[in-house]
Amino acid sequence: xxxxxxxxxxxxxxxxxxxxxxxxxxxxxxxxxxxxxxxxxxxxxxxxxxxxxxxxxxxxxxxxxxxxxxxxxxxxxxxxxxxxxxxxxxxxxxxxxxxxxxxxxxxxxxxxxxxxxxxxxxxxxxxxxxxxxx
Amino acid sequence: xxxxxxxxxxxxxxxxxxxxxxxxxxxxxxxxxxxxxxxxxxxxxxxxxxxxxxxxxxxxxxxxxxxxxxxxxxxxxxxxxxxxxxxxxxxxxxxxxxxxxxxxxxxxxxxxxxxx
Lengths: 134, 116
Description:
The complex is a heterodimer. Chain A has helices at residues 2-31, 36-60, 63-85, 92-108, 113-116, 129-133. The termini of chain A are close together. Chain A is flat, with a radius of gyration of 17 Å. Chain A has six helices and no strands. By secondary structure, chain B is an all-alpha fold. Chain B has one domain. Helices cover 80% and strands 0% of the residues of chain B. Chain B has helices at residues 3-27, 35-50, 52-61, 66-88, 95-113.
């Protein structure tokens, strides 16, 4: 279980990191007209590559939770990155929204005890043992 | 809301849902890059990437309100995908987890529309 959780964490981090790089490329492409095509292509290659991690996550855990945590986390990381890298000033409402997304992610990953055993796998179809040790 | 805007939104949502279903379909192939895995991966990325065209058309039809366009497109695609994936793959989420899904959507709306 612990090995499976480590792999899942790694896939989430990979998805978020490459997704963030793609987002930054699109942002740069939008503002740096001299390298627009380069950033557009690079952003798309990175964006498509990040889905490799998403498919891995879909194979290892509940598809709804995987999608929610991947999208919610990606959204938060990109907003915070824009704030840190480009010094975009976020309003109080935007910070509240980011906190709500984080709270929603925590809520979905904090299931009641009876659900806890099913967490890393698709409900009703436990993951094969070889996936855990991969 | 114009008919064209509704049409583009519906097509974009459908493409996003299809892409996620394709990824999940491909993921059933497990860790190995089987034919099923490759089919799901390629189909999801082809349809998902093509859907960007419709987002651009949605932005074009809502020039005065790009934030609302982003919320409508992204949150609609997200909620639709969550519901269809739960239905197709019989995913059992608790009420608290569904409330978490709702909170993520509300937070995204707030963060997108709450800008200066």
